[in-house]
Amino acid sequence: MKIILNGQEKPLAAPTTLAALLQEMGLSERRVAVEVNREIVPRSRHGEFELKDNDRVEVVFAIGGGSSGMSRGDGDR
């Protein structure tokens, strides 16, 4: 079977779970959000969620944020 992963065609052996795909990508321990066919799949379902031929999968990395450490330069702190 094949899926579309982040806009690129990717062949996969069937059956494959979302968790197996993330592990293959080296992302199983990373903080990611996953959408399959425009629906967010909760992390709690990754192990049971089986991918199907032609599924569109988007994987987005969670990036921490915070203060840049730069001041506004107007004297307010």
UniProtKB/TrEMBL annotation:
Pfam families according to UniProt: ThiS (PF02597)
Domain of life: Bacteria
Protein name: Thiamine biosynthesis protein ThiS
Segments passing through the bilayer: none
